[in-house]
Amino acid sequence: MDDELRRYDAIRPFEPEELPEAYDRLLADGQFRAVLAAAVPGVPFEALAGEVRKCKSCLDFQVKFCYGFLKRLVKTASDGCDMDCSAVDRAGRYTFVSNHRDIVLDSALLDMLLIDAGFGTTCEIAIGDNLLAAPWIKDLVRLNKSFIVERSAGLREMLASSKRMADYMHFVIARKHDNIWIAQREGRAKDSDDRTQPSVLKMMAMGGDGSAIDRLRQLHIVPLAISYEYDPCDYLKAMEFQLRRDVPGWKKTKADDVMSMQTGIMGRKGRIHYHCSTCIDAFLDTLDPAMPKGELFDTVARHIDRAIHSNYRLYAGNYVAADTLWPGEGYGEHFTEAERRVFEDYVGGQLARIELEGKDEPFLRECILRMYANPVRNNRAALAATV
How far apart are CA 127 and CA 116, in angstroms? Predict the structure, then answer.
């Protein structure tokens, strides 16, 4: 392992020589063994352990274990998952910047789809350390090509942490010749009003060489729109909105995150669509190098947002929600009355799952409707802006 890679030991995925020790830890952990048994049902543990140990790289592990699990999950918990990647070169290496719906599946399904599309590799995945609720989970995500976003660092350490992560992202693209996935903002947009945080771009530009434009260009950013017909966590997100409204100082716990991960993975998702926009390198070339950095990051963030919003796939439920909230905006032509009833029944079923003292059902209903309606308004605005 070279010295430059060792700079990132605290955050990077495992290297091949580190895998045997990581396997020893994971295979000795009861919780991981249960996860492995669920991912590959009907196979004796010793046989599974033997197959795990045969994996000589993180990509090997993803292809042998994660890929098959995700294929089975798509069959059982969705009505299909596809990707339009016609705007990018499969031989290229990119930083995919996407909207963020599901804690685990956004990046996991992208890996599956990249394999299906013939990219030859998957992604290194940015994951917040707040999600690493146990040591075995940290080992597993590092085995799954994740690098750690150190959100729990103190204020003094945050600048150094951000610089290290930016340097590592540039190292992944330039030296490891791999892809990267990172969400457009810290945490999920609970109301689905997807907006890129300029601070994410500012962090990226802390690595690399040259001007801020040069540094962003070196990451070959591809805006990625992720569209789920149904969000299994919508009722949990609505409940969170009410708790934040009603309980001063309320904060999510690690148990809440685990619940969201489990619900997102196993819950009903309907149809799923991924859409890659054109790499923004050519757009960056049109920008004035003398532009103030704050204006630059805001401009690039808006460009990424337009790309994601315009390529977001809208389903009947999105239009039903928008028509319910904003009946005068002309969304009714995009769905039938039968589709309206299906979606209204779905929302009613999700509301019934919420167990909350002082449950404010009208408020919760509106929260869920906004999650499905906001992408409609954003899509309409983005398409109008490109005319």
Answer: 23
Contact 373, 322 (CB under 8 A): yes
Amino acid at 332: G
Q: How far apart are CA 366 and CA 264, in angstroms?
A: 21
What is the pTM (predicted TM-score) of this model? 0.95
| Token output for 21 | 């020790």
Torsion of CA 255, 164, 175, 180, to 10 degrees: 30
Number of H helices and E strands in the chain, helices first, is 18, 7
User: What pLDDT score was predicted for residue 1?
Assistant: 61
Short-list 84, 123, 372, 77, CA closest to 225: 84
Residue 103 — very low, low, confident or very high, per pLDDT cuts 50/70/90?
confident
Return d(Cα 138, Cα 144) in angstroms, integer.
10
Coil, strand or helix: which one is 79? coil
Cβ atoms 247, 213 nearer than 8 A: no
CA within 13 Å, CB half, 345: 6
Q: Is 308 exposed, middle or buried (0-12, 13-18, 19+ CB in 10 A)?
A: buried
Cα–Cα–Cα angle for 54, 56, 57, nearest 5°? Answer: 135
Helix (H, G, I), strand (E, B) or coil at 83: strand
**First CA to last CA distance, the chain:** 51
Find, among 345, 338, 366, the residue nearest to 242 by Cα. Answer: 366
Residues 6+ apart with CB under 8 A from 349: none
Residue among 87, 112, 127, 116 nearest 307 (CA): 87
Cβ atoms < 10 Å from Cβ of 46: 9
H or E segment to which residue 126 belongs:
strand 123-128
Beta bridge partners of 180: 95, 124
Tokens 């990424």 appear where? 304
d(CA 129, CA 190): 19
Query: Residue 136 is encoded by which pair of tokens?
Result: 């075995």
Between CA 332 and CA 339 the distance in angstroms is: 11
What's the Cα-to-Cα distance from 8 to each of 163, 165, 167, rounded to whole Å? Answer: 11, 8, 9
Residue 4 has pLDDT above 90, yes or no: no
